[in-house]
Specification:
The protein has 377 residues and is of the alpha/beta class. It has one domain: Aldolase class I (TIM Barrel), CATH 3.20.20.70. The protein contains eleven helices and twelve strands. The chain has helices at residues 42-53, 83-98, 153-172, 187-192, 212-225, 250-262, 288-295, 310-317, 328-332, 336-341, 362-374, and strands spanning 13-15, 18-20, 24-26, 58-65, 102-108, 124-125, 149-150, 177-181, 230-236, 268-272, 300-304, 323-326. It has an eight-stranded parallel β-barrel with strand order 3-4-5-8-9-10-11-12, surrounded by six helices. Strand 4 (58-65), helix 2 and strand 5 (102-108) form a beta-alpha-beta unit. Helix 1 runs parallel beside helix 11 (362-374), helix 3 packs parallel to helix 5 (212-225) and helix 6 (250-262) packs across helix 7.
Length: 377
């Protein structure tokens, strides 16, 4: 018997009852273009709607801060902590839906990697360990990260509640789901990572025990939004401040992480690597997506990482991915699905769009408007 063919990038599917017109996703990308009060702007509405008009089936927003304590990571970052912020997101969501797309809110707590927070002057993390590397200038940072304070039990529970309350506001704003940001070195990933989590209490220990905060956050979010709402989780090895990090527990650790997530209440896993088609570990074996698929055979998996070439994107479906998320490829080609399906050439990525700051720029928004105008009705 021959193995079944991998699905096409343009095949429709559904996530927890939410219909998607294809398997192409816009990856979450920090764009620091909200108001000082964390309110989504008209520029953000144009930005996200451009991807929907360009044919993407699903859009994952930039990381949205979840509480008025320690969650905010960047000046210009949007939040989901009050009615004003939720109402602004409602306008974005409505425009995306009108253009035929679906959109989930990525919920994020920056923890020790916070570069700017209008609510607090200090930072917190699992342990008092200074983050590696330097703050990111494209997001308004400069110099080394601040030394965080180890979170107390009450603060950990408060952070979990912040995710739950933000998820509830996301549902009220009309989002199709939420994605819990457990990747890239932010708070939930800080708890998962051994060298940043040196706790000796119930929030530390081996890699399975260090999953606790992520798993309890998932449980609280699911309880807040109910069964009929998409909940996903994003995982990575590398971090924004530690790009080449690999889980020292290797394949065994990956299996523990993904098996725990398979038993949780998530509808999908969003797995991101620098180059998603490369072996996850130095053994030259499986990709991280393949590790996730083996440990979580029943879950939808989004693959992300250097997949802007159509052949790379399609190839990840044969690695076990259900959907493919594009970052740089989507920035350069907000109409990537339409262009690829029509056999049109793709625009190269221009790094100037993220310099000197990674905020939304007039030329970028004009590209989206022009692409929309050229799209057949």
């Amino acid at each position: 018997m021959t193995a079944p063919a991998a699905p096409s990038l343009f095949d429709a599917l559904a996530l927890n009852g939410v219909p998607l017109r294809n398997r192409l996703v816009v990856a979450p990308m920090t764009r620091i273009s909200a108001s000082d009060a964390g309110v989504a702007t008209e520029a953000m509405r144009r930005y996200y709607t451009g991807f929907a008009r360009g044919g993407f089936g699903l859009i994952v927003t930039e990381g949205i801060y979840t509480d008025r304590a320690y969650a905010q990571g960047y000046a210009g970052q949007p939040g989901l902590t009050d009615a004003q912020q939720a109402h602004a997101w409602q306008r974005v969501v409505a425009a995306v839906h009108q253009a035929g797309g679906r959109i989930v809110a990525q919920l994020m707590h920056a923890g020790a990697l916070s570069q700017a927070n209008r609510f607090r002057d200090d930072t917190v993390g699992p342990s008092a360990v200074q983050p590696r590397g330097q703050q990111m200038p494209v997001y308004g940072g400069k110099g080394p990260y601040r030394m965080p304070r180890a979170m107390g039990e009450a603060e950990i529970l408060q952070a979990i509640d912040g995710f739950a309350q933000a998820a509830r506001l996301a549902r009220e704003a009309g989002f199709d789901g939420v994605e819990i940001h457990g990747a890239n070195g932010y708070l939930l990933d800080q708890f998962l990572t051994g060298h940043t989590n040196q706790r000796q209490d119930g929030w530390g220990g081996g890699i399975a025990q260090r999953m606790r905060l992520l798993l309890e956050t998932i449980s609280a979010v699911r309880a807040a939004v109910g069964a009929g709402f998409v909940v996903g989780a994003r995982l990575s090895q590398g971090k924004v401040n530690d790009f080449t990090h690999k889980w020292p527990e290797g394949a065994e650790g990956a299996n523990a992480v993904f098996a725990a997530l398979a038993a949780s209440a998530v509808d999908y896993l969003h797995v991101t690597e620098h180059e998603a088609w490369q072996s996850a570990f130095a053994d030259g074996g499986a990709t991280l997506v393949q590790h996730a698929r083996r440990a979580a055979p029943g879950l939808a998996i989004i693959a992300n990482g250097g997949l802007h070439a159509p052949s790379r994107a399609a190839g990840m479906l044969s690695h076990g991915a259900t959907l493919v998320a594009l970052g740089r490829g989507a920035l350069a080609n907000p109409d990537w699905p339409l262009r690829v399906r029509a056999g049109q050439p793709l625009r190269p990525f221009d790094a100037a769009v993220l310099a000197p700051l990674a905020d939304l720029k007039d030329a970028e928004l004009a590209l989206r408007d022009a692409s929309a105008a050229a799209t057949p009705a």
